[in-house]
Amino acid sequence: MFNCHAQTDLEVQEAISSISSEPDLIDAVCKIRKQFRIKENSLYYPLYYTREANRENAQFDDLWNCILHSAKRTWFRDKGAHTKLLHILRTIKRNPYPPNRYNGYGPGCIFSCLWGFDRTLSLFLRDNPGYGSGYTQPESHAWTNLNYFAACITKDDPENPWGNWVYCIEAMRAVLEDDMNDDEPHQRSRPGTAIQRYNSLVPAAAVWVLVLGKTLYEKKQDLTPVIGAKRPNYAFGGKLYHGPSGFNKERWTLWKKRFGEISQMGGLNDETRDLAREAFNEMEQNERPAVGSRYLLRPRKTKPSDSDQ
Known about the structure:
This protein has 309 residues and is mainly alpha-helical. Helix content is 52%, strand content 1%. The protein has a domain at 125-300. A two-stranded antiparallel ribbon has the order 1-2. Helix 8 (137-156) runs antiparallel to helix 9 (165-176) and helix 10 (194-212) runs parallel beside helix 13. The chain is globular. Residues 44-54 have low confidence and may be disordered. Residues 282-309 are annotated as: Disordered.
């Protein structure tokens, strides 16, 4: 049943061998995998959106797809580019309510709450390594870039009582709260080895720490659903965490410990270990603000790979 991905895996490898630009390669892989992305010939690019938004049948999904796919193809170290995407969302939130637009949720809701954006983001985050994506380098980088932007959105709206915070827990739980083992043949739609999973998932977890920093350290919130609640417990813990669902110092301590362990693991690529080390050091600095703490792990002196340029 899972062999149905063999053809797309082959097409992805052919794209990797023929496309040198990583943003263009991410575009190609997303199309091959049939992931959530910008629709072909979409009318709802930002250039046209001002004209289209007041139409009664205006659709916002294409605009959200455009912004999120742009984030996915933008290297997370390019803070300026991600800031520009974030500025687009801020600008949309400040727009007046479209006078010709009708819905049953009251004036001001369409733009001020970024109507439908959270749902679109959740769909993009379903294309994670092992499921909607494979474990190739461009797919791992795209996953890291997308999580970086999700973290930026979360930092920009820290009072959101639920929203994007749960995606932080999901990114951490996937790699820090479980022991990594090679997948069984039918365990996931795209099984991977423990090394592949570490290399794909650790960077995406690390960027949440790098973006949120002290805000994440100070966050304390119980996200356990109340008895009778209809929503699932999205903030549950993995096998290595047995505390309450949500954010607390016990969970923070486990995450930091795991980043430290992963930074010393053999078999992982340099990028994975370096980002784990960077996240560990960031967490140490948030606990002990003194510069030059003896607890910090010494950074590796390596040149960035071509894909990081």
